[in-house]
Amino acid sequence: GDFSGQLLAYLSLGPIFIIVGFVTLIIFKRELHTISFLGGLAFNEGVNWLIKNVIREPRPCEEAHSTVTTKYGMPSSHSQFMWFFSVYSFLFLYLRMHQTNNARFLDLLWRHVLSICLVTAALLVSYSRVYLLYHTWSQVLYGGVAGSIMAIAWFAFTQEILTPLFPRIAAWPISEFFLIRDTSLIPNILWFEYTVTRAEARNRQRKLGTKLQ
């Protein structure tokens, strides 16, 4: 009968939905930066597991949740995951995805709205772990700090180390076989794909119209 608890329980499944979304996006887009982002999330989870097994701080109510995969709770893996995802996405939006059309109002507005949504999702998932008695406030707080630091470090590593290597990686025979691509030099991939697709559709429509005459 606890509606808030049920809602927060569903929200705490956010990391699962994000992973499924990443796998789907990689299958259909096959873009190196997206693959790197997912690799960062996986590395972040590995660091969380390592910290937990070093600190070994128990969860607040171990007997209340018999299905958890580990009895240790410091730091919260959900909190660390969500803050990594949110902070990395924030950095990507404002530092990697360059503005178009002289930074017009709507172009900036959707970035701000999306950033607020990302932070809100991270806060709600973090809060849900305390509300559902999986973690203490300190475990959630340190998870958020760890995830944020990991996101900044991985973003810097991707931009400074991996991105210059992406063109070479995309040219590998195995990358060409699996249609893996690099879009790092394209300022706004959404606008680029929209304009290219629209131009190609119009070109094909003109050719089809010519054949039917």
> Which series of helices and strands comes N to C?
HHHHHHHHH
- Structural class by sheet pairing and helices: mainly alpha
- Overall 3D shape: elongated
Instruction: Please state roughly what percent of the residues sit in beta strands, choosing from under 5%, 5-15%, 15-25%, 25-35%, 35-45% or over 45%.
Output: under 5%
Termini separation: 67 Å
Q: Segments where pLDDT lies below 50 for 5+ residues?
A: none
Topology summary:
Elements: H1 3-11, H2 14-29, H3 32-55, H4 77-96, H5 105-131, H6 137-162, H7 166-170, H8 173-177, H9 189-212
Structure description:
With about 210 residues, the chain is an all-alpha fold. It has two domains: about 5-180, no CATH class; about 190-210. The chain contains nine helices and no strands. It is elongated and about 70 Å long. The termini are far apart. Belongs to the dolichyldiphosphatase family. Its main location: endoplasmic reticulum. It is found in: Endoplasmic reticulum membrane. Pathway: Protein modification; protein glycosylation. Keywords: Endoplasmic reticulum, Hydrolase, Membrane, Transmembrane, Transmembrane helix.
